[in-house]
C-alpha cells in the first residue's frame, strides 16, 4: 500500500537531530524548539539559558538542576520518551511499514529499506482539531469512572471475602469445640468401660490364684498326712 507520507530523506534525518532530548518548556509553549539546559523540580519544567533568567527572578528559592545532574531529570516534567535501543536519543519518528516508533539512529540500522517514515511532530499536526482528540477527555473520564466502579466492586468483594472468612473461621472453631467435647466424652466412657473390664478380669484372675493356693495347701496337708502314717 502506498504511503501518504514522503519517504525519509537525508534532510529529514538531519532535521530529526534538531529534536532535543529535553526542550525548554516555556519556548515550547511559544512554538519554539530550544534545547533545555536546566530543570526545576519545584515547577517540573525545563528551561533554556534565557528563560532561566526570568524564572530565577520570580522563583528565587526553587531548586534548579543543570545538565550535570541530567540523570535526575528522567521521569519528570515533559521530557520526550527515550529510545530503548539508543538512549538517550528520543523517539521522534514513526515507521509505518513496521508500525514502530524509532529514533534517528534506528533508521539506518533497522529501517533503511522502509518507504514510509515520518516525523511524529508532523503526524501530530492538527491533532487537536480531530474529533477523536476532542472526545478524548470525555472518554478518559468515562474510563476513569468505570475503573472506579470496578475498584469499588473489588473492594466490596474484598470486604465480603473477609466477612466470609471470619464466619467460616468461627464455624470451624465451633465445630472443633463440639468435636473436642464429643471426644472428651468418648474418652471418659472408654476409660470407664476399660477400667470396668480390667477390674472384672483382675477379679477373675485373683479367684483363680486363690483357688490354686487353696489346692496347694490341701495337697500339702494330704502329703503330710501320708508321711505321718508311714512312720
From TrEMBL:
Q: Where is the B box-type domain?
A: 22-67
Q: Which UniProt keywords apply?
A: Metal-binding, Zinc, Zinc-finger
Q: What InterPro entries does the entry give?
A: TRIM45/56/19-like, Znf_B-box
Which named protein is this?
B box-type domain-containing protein
* Organism, as annotated: Mya arenaria
Q: What is the lineage of its organism?
A: Eukaryota, Metazoa, Spiralia, Lophotrochozoa, Mollusca
Amino acid at each position: 500500500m502506498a504511503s501518504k507520507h514522503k519517504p525519509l530523506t537525508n534532510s529529514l534525518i538531519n532535521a530529526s537531530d534538531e529534536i532535543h532530548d529535553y526542550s525548554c518548556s516555556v519556548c515550547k509553549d511559544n512554538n519554539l524548539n530550544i534545547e533545555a539546559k536546566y530543570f526545576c523540580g519545584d515547577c517540573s519544567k525545563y528551561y533554556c539559558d534565557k528563560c532561566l533568567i526570568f524564572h530565577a527572578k520570580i522563583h528565587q528559592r526553587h531548586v534548579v538542576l543543570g545538565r550535570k545532574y541530567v540523570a535526575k531529570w528522567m521521569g519528570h516534567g515533559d521530557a520526550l520518551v527515550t529510545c530503548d535501543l539508543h538512549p538517550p536519543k528520543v523517539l521522534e519518528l514513526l515507521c509505518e511499514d513496521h508500525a514502530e516508533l524509532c529514533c534517528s539512529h534506528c533508521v539506518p540500522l533497522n529501517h533503511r529499506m522502509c518507504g514510509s517514515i515520518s516525523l511524529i511532530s508532523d503526524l501530530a499536526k492538527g491533532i487537536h482539531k480531530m474529533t477523536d482528540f476532542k472526545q478524548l477527555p470525555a472518554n478518559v473520564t468515562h474510563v476513569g469512572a468505570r475503573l472506579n466502579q470496578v475498584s469499588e466492586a473489588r473492594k466490596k468483594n474484598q470486604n465480603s471475602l473477609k466477612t466470609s472468612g471470619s464466619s467460616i473461621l468461627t464455624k470451624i472453631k465451633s465445630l472443633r469445640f463440639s468435636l473436642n467435647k464429643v471426644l472428651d466424652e468418648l474418652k471418659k466412657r472408654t476409660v470407664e468401660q476399660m477400667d470396668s473390664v480390667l477390674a472384672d478380669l483382675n477379679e477373675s484372675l485373683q479367684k483363680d490364684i486363690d483357688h490354686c493356693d487353696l489346692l496347694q495347701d490341701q495337697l500339702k496337708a494330704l502329703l503330710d498326712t501320708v508321711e505321718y502314717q508311714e512312720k
